[in-house]
Amino acid sequence: MRSVSDDYKANEQAKEVRPAELFHLWEDSETGRHWYYTSGDEPVTFNGKEYVPAGITRENLSYDTELQATKLSVTAGHIDEAFRDYLAQQPTEQLWVSLMRVHRDDPSEVMVLFMGQCLSVSFKGATAKGEFAGFQKFLQMEIPRYRYQPHCNNTLFDGFCKIPVQDHSFLALATPDTTGKVLSFDDSQEDVETHTAHLGEAFTVGYPSPTYVTVTGYDEGIDYTLAGNEVTVLSDGNITEGETLEVKFGYSFSSFGDGYFSLGWVEFQGQKRMIISHVGLNITVQYPFNEMAEGAGVKLYAGCDQRIETCRDKFDNVNNFFGTPYIPQANPSERMS
User: Fold this and answer.
1) What pTM was estimated for this model as a whole?
2) For FRET with 297, which of 33, 251, 310, 323 sits at 20 to 30 Å CA-CA?
3) 278-327 pLDDT, tens per residue?
4) Burial of 2 (0-12, 13-18, 19+ CB in 10 A)
């Protein structure tokens, strides 16, 4: 907010300085009104707007520990129009102010001293005094997590979504293009999972139709059966109850379909990148990875656009959908007769 050019700094250091302060007040709406005032005794034109002299003053700015302006009091005489609506009640439209310092001999550049929203206006005779708070006030406010909206309020794989992340994340080998943003994959890929052995009980691998499955433990010769993606360890195999098993399975990358990984992410050597597109055997990430070479091992995570159709068709998780998809989009109070 305080960044200025060398020319502005030169004007500040000149022997003769003719500064003025500009006050831009406006209502926060599409049809809101704007007022342009200067504390000087002559009009100042900046950015195509004429700031007219007015009986407007301010008190010293309040600063926080990082020297950011946090509060400003503005006083205007003769019940200025910008404050007049506050005589009856708090207006529905928020009033904002931008305080700028300009050199009248060179009004092509200003230094913004403060920008904030009106909290209250008090009156004494024909004088109005507005109290304004800077942006720091809003950064410290608690923001409600949930909203009435068609899209889900949950985050994919969190404790409210309840989808197991291991069911929709896969190991793969990727090759980046020259930009580093587009990663290509062979159709035949292999993933590895660990499972705990419970004799005679089935467990599922994280892919519905693996091309092959191999199971190994501390000892070789494990006997198991495979039905779809369900693996059952046989009790007569060379295995111990509760033993950790390494399960490898093959899968076809193209079987996921376009868009399956869109809005998901990729992990590579501790780095994470958002996936902005998934088409065929290629995905596009938002930013390239550092030092990724051909055949790099990555982990891919499915994405979710938070629509109820995606929750139903892609994840079969409508029971945990936390949105209001059927809420009316048209506001009846805004309808025109």
Assistant:
1) 0.57
2) 310
3) 999 999 999 999 889 999 999 999 999 999 999 999 999 999 999 999 88
4) exposed
Q: Which residues pair with 196 in a beta bridge?
A: 244
Query: How far apart (Å, rounded) are the C-alpha atoms in residues 229 and 246?
Result: 15
* Amino acid of residue 184: S
Number of structural domains in the chain: 2
List the beta bridge partners of residue 122: 129
The Cα 253–Cα 332 span in angstroms is 47
Whether residues 215 and 304 share a domain: the answer is yes
Helix (H, G, I), strand (E, B) or coil at 255: helix
CA angle at 108 for the pair 104 and 112, rounded to the nearest 5°: 85
**Which structural domain range is residue 15 located in?**
6-139
Task: Give residue 202's pLDDT band: very low, low, confident or very high (50, 70, 90).
Answer: confident
Asked whether residue 334 is assigned to any structural domain, the reply reads no
User: How many other CB atoms are there within 10 angstroms of residue 334's CB atom?
Assistant: 6
DSSP state of 56: E
Q: Which two tokens stand for residue 315?
A: 């994840």
Q: Which residues contact 284 (CB under 8 A, 6 or more apart)?
A: 181, 182, 183, 275, 276, 277, 278
Domain check: are 130 and 220 in the same one?
Answer: no
